[in-house]
Design goal:
Length: 56
């Protein structure tokens, strides 16, 4: 569970930094943070499922 939270924080931070670097408005920064956070969570869940299936 903590891995998913870490993925969310990492993704949101990365997305916000990318949007800020591209000189985005506040709405752009929030949107990038949300989307990157969501993508990182989905990727971490998928990776977790794959790893559990391979080791079982």
């Amino acid at each position: 569970m903590l891995v998913y939270l870490g993925a969310l924080v990492l993704g949101a931070t990365l997305g916000a930094l990318i949007a800020h670097r591209r000189k985005g408005t506040l709405a752009d920064i929030l949107q990038y943070a949300f989307v990157y956070g969501a993508v990182f969570i989905v990727a971490s869940v998928f990776l977790s499922i794959v790893l559990h299936r391979l080791t079982a």
